[in-house]
Design brief:
Helix content is 21%, strand content 20%. It has four helices and 14 strands. The chain has a five-stranded mixed beta sheet with strand order 5-14-13-9-11. Strands 4-8-12-10 form a four-stranded antiparallel beta sheet.
């Protein structure tokens, strides 16, 4: 029994190191060298192929503009204040109930203050009435090479915060700031005059991408009350001279145009579901993405 155990131990030791054949784990030094050399060359070739494909791919990438944008969806429409579940509920008599909404708007509008837009090296006046696209050359060059249009807070009227620091919430007339999300190179195409006849638009302008807010459901249409719009030139939409957007490298100080909407007599103590929609020939909507070209928000003013 002891002799068989000793023999077994000897065979294992001999497998690890065979002093007669000079083998380690069943291979000679030359054999180990050949197999290691093979795997070094093999994995070296794989790494070279991988690095080469990455380098070729990088040659097709433009630092300032995506090479392919054919699958980019139309921009989304979003609102400020940005809240969870897109629900706004407050008591006009209780400042604490709407404090978070007001602070959210204040923080967002900080970059639109006149003091931030002073530098003529980066900002320029593009007029106070809507006009055509502002082309700023090719999508190439060093960072910060393209100027951006100034946007004045005073154009937001009652929702500018200049005369009312609570943005209407204290009076039960909440303001919502609307913006079109940035898409590099995107040029909005406003609808034709005849196609907006069904919209409750007081003025048509071919240089405005119009936006309208209405009751989402039939029962909401009678509860939404009066809706007031505040934008450049008094138009309910986004002026075209702020497009196209050239990206963060070329326009690090870009300010997208804003539209303020104020709901002045919502039905009290009732949750009103409101849908805001941008209208344009290249503005699309998707059931899978509820912010593509539109959004809806629930507002309840409590007594």
């Amino acid at each position: 029994m002891a002799r068989g155990k000793a023999k077994e131990e000897g065979s294992w030791k001999k497998f690890i190191w065979n002093s007669e054949k000079k083998e380690f784990l069943g291979r000679t030094g030359g054999s180990w060298f050949k197999i290691l050399l093979f795997y070094v060359i093999f994995y070296g070739c794989l790494a070279g192929i991988f690095i080469g494909t990455i380098q070729v791919m990088l040659l097709t990438i433009n630092e300032f503009r995506p090479t392919y944008q054919d699958r980019v969806a139309p921009p989304g429409l979003t609102q400020v204040p940005q809240i969870q579940k897109t629900e706004i509920s407050f008591y006009p008599s209780n400042p604490k109930s709407y404090e978070a909404y007001v602070l959210n708007i204040i923080r967002f509008l900080e970059k639109y203050k006149d003091a931030v837009q002073k530098d003529d090296m980066f900002f320029e006046d593009c007029g106070s009435v809507p006009s055509d696209f502002k082309e700023r050359g090719p999508y190439e060059g060093g960072p910060g090479q393209r100027k951006v249009c100034r946007f004045k807070l005073e154009w937001l009227g009652n929702c500018s915060g200049i005369n009312d620091e609570t943005y209407g919430y204290k009076e039960g007339k909440p303001c919502v700031i609307i913006k079109l999300n940035r898409v590099l190179g995107f040029k909005p195409k406003p609808p034709k005059n005849e196609s907006v006849e069904n919209l409750a638009m007081t003025k048509y302008n071919p240089y405005i991408l119009p936006v309208q807010c209405t009751g989402k459901r039939d029962e909401d249409k009678d509860k939404i009350g009066n809706v007031e719009y505040f934008g450049m030139g008094g138009y309910a939409g986004f002026p075209l001279q702020y497009y196209p957007y050239y990206g963060k490298l070329l326009q690090p100080n870009y300010l997208q145009p804003l539209l303020a909407v104020q709901f002045t007599n919502l039905t009290m103590d009732t949750e009103v579901r409101i849908e805001c929609k941008a209208y344009g020939e290249n503005i699309g909507y998707s059931e899978k993405d509820r912010f593509q070209g539109r959004f809806d928000v629930k507002i309840e003013v409590r007594s």
